[in-house]
Each structure stands twice: as structure tokens, then as C-alpha cells.
Amino acid sequence: MKNIKILLALLSIVSLSIACTTDDNSGSGSGSSSKARVVSKIIFEGDDYVEEYAFKYDSDGRITRVTCSDADYYVKYYYNYGSDNELEIVREYGGDTYGDDHSYTSYALLNNKGYMTRIDDLMTLSYDSKGYLVSASESEEDWLCEISYLWSGGNIVETEYMSEDEGYSYSHTATFDYNYKPMSMVNLDLNLVLSYWTEAILYVPFSWGDGLTGRKSKNFMTGWTFESDDYEEEATISWSYDEDGYPKEALVEYDDGYEFCMTIKYKN
Questions:
Q1: I want to staple 255 with a disulfide (CB 3.0 to 4.6 A). Which of 105, 163, 202, 234 is the partner?
Q2: What is the pLDDT of residues 3-22, one digit of tens each?
Q3: What CA dihedral angle connects 245, 247, 249 and 253, to 10 degrees?
Q4: What is the DSSP string of 122-139?
């Protein structure tokens, strides 16, 4: 797993060439139904490491619980929606990795479209007139962190990250490529889910592309280039689709040889 220090990063196989076969041209690419398929589970595999994410929803299709787990730990996120544009997010940690069970609670303020605009008293998120996330910032005492998002054609094409911590400054930029498959065929923004697990540059807190942080990507990401003053990295993403054109796997390959696979399971 790549470890890039990023905004509120909470979480951080056998042969992947066998476990995660890819073919960007398989399936129709448009989905056989106008209704988005609902993701129930996502499994990540890489370097003898397996982690599972299970999703629960309410009758309105909003996420109510996300359970992240491997053989040694679990983290459960509970989303409790209030009637006054407030959202309570409870995180429960347990297992061998975290020792005794413990929990933390955060509170988010939502705008009239249901997008998070503030988390606790630390983080602010801003959107443009079309509902796309354009910035996320966090500050407390000697810590400052800002990310800006540049969109084009319904996709994030560039991000700029900057942080200052007790006099130390760090920054990086990243650019992204996409295919033409429509993300509207699934209920979550799989680009955000993918980058959440890798702690990559699209990461935004407590969001799985389910509408809490604005509009989701139009298409599926196929790779990124990451650059800082002393480091550069490239990664490619190859998607495979089922016979109806829905995404079932994504193989991520870094230029240093590291790779992992994301497998998507559906409710319907």
C-alpha cells in the first residue's frame, strides 16, 4: 500500500495477474439497465494483504454503515442523518491491530443539496455552482492542509495539495486520465473508493462518492501521475466488466512494480 501523507488519512495475493484479469473492452460498457447497480462489497488484494469493505444503505439509498476489515482489525463507520442538515459520523475500531474497542464521533454540516461543507471545527469543503468539489482544507494550531480539485468534462483532471506542519511545508500535484465508460452505472464513485484505500490524491474524508461530497466522476479513472519536489510516481488502472457492461474488477499497477486488485460486488 502506498503511504502518502494526505488530508485526514484514516486507514490506511497470490498472483494478481491471475486473481484480477482485466479487459477494458469486455461487456457493453453502458450497463443493461438505466438504474445504477448498488455496490454491497468491495475487496482489495495486494502483497498478501486482503481488506474488505461492506456497505449498508437506508431506504433513500444513503450510506448508513461502512465496515472495513481484514484478518486483524475492523473499523465501522455509522452515518446518522439528522433533520437539521447535520450528519453524525461514528467510527468504531477493534481487533488485534487497535487493541481494545474504542470509538470517535464527528459532526458534519450539510448544505441544501446534502453535501458536507464542514466537518467538526477543523475542515471546510467548497463546491462550484454545478456541485463539484473544488477545495478541502483543514487547520488547527500549527497544522494546515489544503487540496484543490480541477474538473473537466465531469472528471477531476488535476489536484494540488499543500500542507504546513510546525514550519515544515510540503506540496504535490497530480493529474488523471479516464476512459469513456459511464460511472452512472453504479451508485458509488469507484474512483474515490479506489483512492481511499491507496491514500492517493483524490482522497476526501468520510466519502465514498455517494453524494456527500458533491457530484461524482463521469467516467472511470485509468491512471495518474503524481509529482512532488523529490518524488514522482505513475500508476495505470485497468478495468474489467461483466457481460452486461458493469465494472467487476480494477487492477492498479504502479511504475515501481507494485500492484493490487479491487473487486466489486453488487446487491442487484
A1: 234
A2: 333 333 322 222 333 346 44
A3: 100
A4: TEEEEE-TTS-EEEEEEE
